[in-house]
Amino acid sequence: MKIAVKAAPNNTSYESLDTASLIFTNHNTNIKKVMSNNSVINNAVKNDRSAPIGLFDSGVGGLSVYLHLAQQLPHERYVYYADTLHVPYGNRDSEDIKALTLTAVEWLYQQGCKLIVIACNSASAYALETARRCYPQLPIVGLVPALKPAVLASKTGHVAVLATKATLNGTLLNDVITNVASHHATKVTKLFTQDGIDQLVLGCTHYPFFKAFLRQEIAEQQLAIQIVDSGQAIAERVKQLLLTNQLLALPAEVAADEALKDKAIRVNLSPPLTFYATKYDEKLGVVIQHLLGPQTDIHYYLSP
Length: 304
Known about the structure:
Blueprint: E1 2-7, E2 20-25, E3 28-35, H1 39-42, E4 53-57, H2 63-72, E5 78-82, H3 94-110, E6 115-118, H4 121-134, E7 140-142, H5 147-153, E8 158-162, H6 165-169, H7 171-181, E9 187-189, E10 199-202, H8 211-220, E11 226-228, H9 231-244, E12 253-258, E13 263-268, E14 273-277, H10 284-292, E15 298-302
Parallel strand pairs: 1-15, 4-5, 4-6, 5-14, 6-7, 8-9, 8-10, 10-11, 14-15
Antiparallel strand pairs: 1-2, 2-3, 12-13
């Protein structure tokens, strides 16, 4: 995994970042300075197919959404904003969450993103509609726990939602409970119990990374429970919006010589993920590498 790291000094605008970067290679401890033209961050053009998609979360949980997006839309460029300085959002009050979310959306907007995904259920619960009003020309996709498909799939009429306090109390989730679950006479439990539940909704973007553990626990307890994750639905929605607005990125193809066969071949290149953190922790890169895998190419833009 190749990682480019750039630190932003305090009170420095992102447009005036120094052009020096550090490149770290996963299997090589040598550090070498290279020059960068900041093209990933500063030269993207809004309303252009080649412009990046922005993602925002209070931490690294939104990377579960990124994985779905990268799978369905592999030719897109992605810029990820992690507000690690203020994580977690789940227990913050609504006005605090709204202010932090708007700061993140503005940053991504300034990077030229053609579409933004608020990959945080808590932020979506309190700031999605405000963000859309502030940026009416910019498609903004928010997260709401995938309660609707869970309700429609439930055979027992009992669904559980695992989420933070902010998400559970937010209007997005409770509107779905009122308009969908109640209409289908489905009971929604805002905690995990074994009382006839057959659908378990993961209402926080961190939780999909624990799917294997959850599945193991469900299997060991011989429970007939399906795990529902909203990541795939979000990726499908993003793809639909890009197609509708004619913003879907075209495959980046390059010609290469296949030495052994001595003939030209075409290779599709997947762009790297650009990752910005409001606060850097030395463990952050290790966590991200563990979540995304060593094959993922990531460029880090970090605050000290």
